[in-house]
């Protein structure tokens, strides 16, 4: 990543390394769904030769295109853009799935992934259970400490709050649509789903 990228921090950027560690060996084509101004896409490009970022937000895409790189930034709707099925070795998405119907989004990502490819999602969900309170309080404390040390960068893309899907609903959706996926709930109000598409 650029020096400027390296100085940024927020709850989403905190989990970029989890996405980048999931890139499969030999990956040639990557898709960043909801790429915003392109920070994760640029991280993917350090390993993957051909990276595409797509986002509905014109401001974010405009900022992404200001960078001197060879990433293909598309202003458009991931759900309807005419990508070829099974055409990406890695598909990444951070804080985007709650902007669409989660089941539809996961299924679309699954279908665009090549056999043997990896889907890596970091997303937002809603706490609803009384048992969530201690974890959420710990997340507030941890987030406050991170911001005190690292500052906080606000991405230019639109926000959706509260997320429409709960953590338990997201876990169930991932298990149903991506059998064998690894779902993890994280401290800083995020979850991740990592899935390798079976070879045909």
UniProtKB/TrEMBL annotation:
- GO MF terms held by the record: S-adenosylmethionine-dependent methyltransferase activity
Gene3D superfamilies noted in UniProt: Vaccinia Virus protein VP39 (3.40.50.150)
Task: Give yes or no: UniProt keyword S-adenosyl-L-methionine.
Answer: yes
Q: InterPro entries, per this entry?
A: Methyltransf_11, SAM-dependent_MTases_sf
CDD domains the UniProt entry points to: AdoMet_MTases (cd02440)
Q: Which GO terms describe its biological process?
A: methylation
Q: What is this protein called?
A: SAM-dependent methyltransferase
Write down the species. Answer: Thermocatellispora tengchongensis
């Amino acid at each position: 990543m650029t020096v400027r990228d390296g100085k940024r921090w927020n709850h989403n950027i905190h989990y970029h390394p989890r996405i980048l560690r999931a890139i499969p060996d030999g990956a040639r084509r990557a898709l960043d769904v909801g790429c915003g101004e392109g920070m994760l896409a640029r991280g993917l490009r350090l390993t993957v030769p051909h990276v595409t970022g797509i986002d509905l937000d014109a401001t974010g895409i405009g900022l992404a295109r200001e960078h001197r790189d060879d990433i293909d930034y598309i202003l458009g709707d991931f759900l309807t853009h005419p990508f070829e099925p099974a055409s990406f070795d890695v598909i990444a998405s951070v804080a985007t799935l709650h902007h669409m119907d989660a089941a539809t989004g996961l299924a679309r990502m699954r279908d665009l992934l090549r056999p043997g490819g990896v889907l890596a999602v970091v997303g937002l969900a809603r706490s609803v259970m009384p048992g969530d309170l201690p974890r959420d309080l710990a997340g507030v404390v941890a987030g406050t400490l991170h911001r005190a040390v690292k500052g906080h960068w606000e991405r230019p893309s639109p926000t959706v709050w509260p997320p429409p899907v709960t953590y338990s609903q997201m876990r169930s959706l991932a298990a149903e649509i991506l059998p064998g996926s690894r779902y993890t709930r994280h401290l800083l109000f995020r979850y991740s789903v990592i899935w390798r598409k079976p070879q045909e």
